[in-house]
Amino acid sequence: MEELVGLREGSPGNPVTLRELWSPCPRIRKGIRDGLGWLKQKLFREGEDWHLLMTLGVLMALISYTMNFAVNRVVRAHKWLYREIGDSHLLRYLSWTVYPVALVSFSSGFSQSITPFSGGSGIPELKTILSGVILDDYLDIKNFGAKVVGLSCTLASGSTVFLGKVGPFVHLSVMIAAYLSRVRLKATKESENRRKQKEMLVVAAAVGVATVFAAPFSGVLFSIEVLSSHYSVWDYWRCFFAATCGAFMFRLLAVFNSEQETITSLFKTGFRVDVPFDLPEIFFFVVLGAICGILSCAYLFCQRTFLGFIRTNRFTSKLMATSKPVYSTLATLILASITYPPGVGRFMASRLSMKEHLDSLFDNNSWALITRNSSPPWPAEPDPQNLWFEWYHPQFTVFGTLAFFLVMKFWMLILATTIPIPAGYFMPIFIFGAATGRLIGEALSVAFPEGIIAGGITYPIIPGGYALAGAAAFSGAVTHTISTAILAFELTGQIVHALPVLLAVLAANAIAQSCQPSFYEGTIIVKKLPFLPWIRGRNIGNHPVIVEHFMNGAITVLAKDMSMEEVVKVVTSTDVAEYPLVESTESQILMGVVRRAQLLQALQAEPPSWVPEHQRCLQDILARSCPMEPVTLHLSPETSLHQAHNLFELMNLHSLFVTLRGKAVGFVSWVELKKAISNLTNPPAPK
Amino acid sequence: MEELVGLREGSPGNPVTLRELWSPCPRIRKGIRDGLGWLKQKLFREGEDWHLLMTLGVLMALISYTMNFAVNRVVRAHKWLYREIGDSHLLRYLSWTVYPVALVSFSSGFSQSITPFSGGSGIPELKTILSGVILDDYLDIKNFGAKVVGLSCTLASGSTVFLGKVGPFVHLSVMIAAYLSRVRLKATKESENRRKQKEMLVVAAAVGVATVFAAPFSGVLFSIEVLSSHYSVWDYWRCFFAATCGAFMFRLLAVFNSEQETITSLFKTGFRVDVPFDLPEIFFFVVLGAICGILSCAYLFCQRTFLGFIRTNRFTSKLMATSKPVYSTLATLILASITYPPGVGRFMASRLSMKEHLDSLFDNNSWALITRNSSPPWPAEPDPQNLWFEWYHPQFTVFGTLAFFLVMKFWMLILATTIPIPAGYFMPIFIFGAATGRLIGEALSVAFPEGIIAGGITYPIIPGGYALAGAAAFSGAVTHTISTAILAFELTGQIVHALPVLLAVLAANAIAQSCQPSFYEGTIIVKKLPFLPWIRGRNIGNHPVIVEHFMNGAITVLAKDMSMEEVVKVVTSTDVAEYPLVESTESQILMGVVRRAQLLQALQAEPPSWVPEHQRCLQDILARSCPMEPVTLHLSPETSLHQAHNLFELMNLHSLFVTLRGKAVGFVSWVELKKAISNLTNPPAPK
């Protein structure tokens, strides 16, 4: 009976096939199939790619987790070796230094031999790509292996080299995203769409950050702040979706692997919730922010100068050009020798891993107050329950070690950033800031040992709160971002210090942004990558600069009525990528654009015909074999600099023609814009 | 001696005046003056307006705090009256209802009599203004008083009317910002700059939200998500600065007034930190998000339909047009009668204020588990320590009251949104979501009374966490935002539920965004405000639509060689705001734009001359008295719809001319774009 009903129901629209009729419950099966079809149609609608975003998030989380897992094993093996090797100082020294030196030199050699793009963080290059520049092969999936292996080795060398993984993870994520969208294009046979690709890259950057820190909010905000000067809300939602998938998966794996009971934050803190800080402490938080801002300026300046020095100095530039691994080995050897624990490393807590550094710096208690009367021992190995013992030295006290740590890490970090290996520079900066904050927090807890009195109860000052604010402020100042504040909350799982941390970050940013370009911008400048400068608010004067003032009027045009001779002359004498095509030499009315490559091809393919060369004109070739592309957007000489800059930035353009009443009168590219903007800031001497 | 040195030092550059010489310590005074001058120059550089942002933040915080303070006093007086009036039911009923009815009718009458713009939240109008539409007088400072007084009365009527303050605060903040920038323009004599004004408005919106909730992060993100489809990072930093100033000042005032010991969050919760939730609970969080999404669709649909009904129904539309206070009075009387505590209000915790509603819903304990064995009494007044007693009824249990609350508030809220008073609709939605979450959380705590077992210890399920997720998810779905998640963390001062809340918000948003326009967009549609629809990702087909397909080719041009007769004919037969001016009737080359108003003026002022009318042409007038404005940007027929849409949206344009080889061939405005976009979604029937 039921089958009959199924038959009857199915017959008018979709006739039920014989095979379906024989299998049981055709109605239910048809219902399920229809439901699945509907779901598929909903999920995979044309243009929708939520499944792609989810795949990206999950993939990156898997990679991040697997890498952490592998790196932890290698680090544990190093610790075991160092512990078991005996008491001979030479052997211990060798075991301490050879391990990271070998890893870093392998990382450097391996990754550089596969692709020259694998060094550094990758965020400056991504910034450049998102502004519309095409960096060939930078997003190619074949760099992936080099970057993964290289980064794993870098991370496995631990706190000796003191580098992180954020930047390379953003790069990795972007590579996967570019690959996924290419696969999707092939599968759906859609035409390539630059805008969609850019959307994917922005999302990928957010996923990269989110899967390293399990922090979706700060991942999204970081990608907003760092990557471009304008942001579409449509991207924002997609970023949140993908970043949440990534972060969730990343923490889920930790739970599945029984590292944790449930999903929690990475560096869980236990700050007091009821009275976390007293009102006057806000002042010290702001002062801490200002100090971090000043420090970040010094750091950025020194880092840029040193990077420039390495690139221009005869000896080092030769070394970098010919044998990068040698340079890496030398630099790592210096870093490893200094951090050797029984030596100088004793005074800078070098036995702690980077995670332990942060864990210990965010500690609740005031070390200075605890160690005033009792002196904790220096354990044979770091005590997981009392990691902060590493920061204490009987003679130097915690202040000495913290200050020494800051002084030494300042230049060691700058040295480390010059090593050509895949590495992130965010985490070390974050830890450096945390140590700065801790130092000030400890000083305050000693200066005001009676603490905060609220409601009759005395609460001690929490130096960990200052470490949190310092970390956010310093890393925010170096990268020119504010989202580091929210990163600090997401990492620690507490948001009680919301306002003081935000104030510190703002103070630090105010100083850093007015004095130095950000870390990423600095790298772009040193690496001579193309970029379009900002027009800051204060640069908009009362007398608007218009396109006419700065456009380049010397354009080479091709006219439709040009003879072949003339065309050949133009093509051979210039080498721009595309020529504006005008109606006639006389009228100069802009018709479209001809690509040089296509024109050359057409000229070469042109059959020798009976018409003499000087009588044939460009129009014939165009009609036959060389397509003309339309110009969809052009400037007018009266367009203001500001409007032109906006157009370039918002539409990711690189050059535009200027037309006056239809006539091509010039063009504007990044070069002209840059010059015009720099003239705004430093007006040229009046004639 | 010291004065002599001062004299000698001062003499070469700045000669020290006699008066300065006589006063003590000229050197120090000069140093201080120079320092102050330097600081002033740094702070008040041309184009800088950080001081303005700070002023805005501090002002809004002061207004917000003062309003809260005044409203609290009025609410307390109402409570006192209700308590002291005796046991007569009639008197109690009257004291319960007359108070809000009087306040709301006064609010409605007062604010509407001053300005018709004062009703509602103001965010939809702000969205429209930011997209480039000029709404006259909407940002005029004279509306300020009406809105402040009206809003205070609305808030003072308490949880009876159940409305919040976010929307109007955004409007107030925007009004102050517009006023401040006008004052600044006058003071610095800079020329008006539309872009700068827009920047100020975006910042003001963030400040508005931040000073209501003391939540700078969510204020900024809210303004990103709600106000426009593109966002500049430059605005983002300014928003953070102003919002932090505002939020800090707002909480500072609370500390100064001894309401708090130190700066903390508004609705401090005390969720368990170590194991806040178990992994399987994530599933229920997502289900909760989905339920909130479905509920929000129902709410948005009903709200829009009812608002449309009120506007079109013969009786109500007449009432609204002639006597708004009467409508307000009637609606409030219904709401107040239902919430009368000894009546139906008993079952919906109507004695609690809105703040107390949230405080109680975020409670740690499971009410259902507590009340299984013992039955708490219904106190004569809400007990500040155990606010949740209000949610318990011996027969109905907490499930009954929560469900009843949801059902009743659903339509009461829709009714309340139609009352023409200044009021915010975010807070009630947030509470509604919290109640939804609480209901599900309580159900779960009963379904799994053994709770979570982790590390051998049993932890009960926290229904408060679900309330938090529900609040964020429902309010996020209604407003189509994700930042409500971070608002929930900022409000409660805890971020332990980061991932589950985010997942719930994403689930809710996925459903709501695919089914209904957001609350603000819905209001824009109902109020018939102009707007430009989005092109969603899926609407970009493979066959690009270009401007040629949808541009309006019927343009009325003025040619330079037109005779006066023809010009007058054109001007009298059309009434567009501006005419494209072409070189000649024959060539149609676009030269610029002539404003109709200016042209009319010039035509009228034209002296009767000896040249006969038909021999004089437009060119003469232009040369004499009517300025031509340049066209700085024009489209080409080959520009794609997507590019054109981007241009309109990013540059805040309203119409552009289309030129082909310099010739004006058509124009594109919002009307054409809207039609083209709707054709993308619902392709017209093939011809």
Notes on the structure:
Chains A, B: Belongs to the chloride channel (TC 2.A.49) family. 2 copies of one chain form a homodimer. In chain A, strands 4-5-6 form a 3-stranded mixed beta sheet. Chain A has a two-stranded antiparallel sheet with strand order 2-3. In chain A, strands 8-9 form a two-stranded antiparallel ribbon. Chain A has 29 helices and 9 strands. The first copy, chain A, is mainly alpha-helical and 687 residues long. Residues 1-13 of chain A have low confidence and may be disordered. Chain A has helices at 2-10, 18-22, 26-43, 50-84, 89-114, 123-130, 143-156, 158-161, 166-188, 194-213, 216-227, 233-256, 281-312, 314-322, 324-339, 354-361, 367-370, 397-418, 426-447, 463-479, 483-492, 498-515, 519-526, 547-550, 564-573, 596-605, 618-624, 641-650, 670-681; strands at 230-232, 452-454, 457-459, 558-559, 578-582, 590-595, 633-635, 655-660, 663-669. In chain A, helix 5 packs antiparallel against helix 7 and helix 10 (194-213) crosses helix 11 (216-227). The radius of gyration of chain A is 31 Å and the shape is globular. Among the domains of chain A are: 2-43, no CATH class; 50-256, Clc chloride channel; 541-681, CBS-domain, CATH 3.10.580. In chain A, 61% of the residues lie in helices and 6% in strands. At the A-B interface, helix 10, helix 11, strand 1, helix 12 and helix 21 of A face helix 10, helix 11, strand 1, helix 12 and helix 21 of B. Strand 1 of chain A pairs antiparallel with strand 1 of chain B, so a sheet runs across the interface.
